Amino acid sequence: MENLGIFILTVTLVMMSPAIIMVIIGFAILKKKKIIAKKLFIAAGIYLIVGLGICASILS
Question: What's this model's pTM, rounded to 2 decimal places?
Fold first, then answer.
């Protein structure tokens, strides 16, 4: 049962980490390049929605 918890945590981190990285980069460049930052925020949101949908379908 311990291995299942580790598996769920790993899958969740893999699905969410690119979105988190995109948001961090977006906030870092928000003042210099607003258009690119907005595109990164949108891409991160879409990636998060798709990632959570795939993650939920794999785990259920």
Answer: 0.75
43/32 Cα distance (integer angstroms): 19
Phi-psi group of 33: left, alpha or beta (phi > 0 → left; psi -120 to 50 → alpha; rest → beta): beta
- Sequence ranges of the domains in the chain: 16-59
Amino acid present at 27:
F
The Cα 59–Cα 54 span in angstroms is: 9
- Token pair 């893999």 is found at 14
Q: Which has the closest alpha carbon to 37: 23, 47, 48? A: 23
Q: For the segment 7-60, what is each residue's pLDDT rounded down to a tens digit? A: 888 888 888 888 999 999 999 999 999 999 999 999 999 988 887 777 667 666
Distance CA 29, CA 41 (A): 11
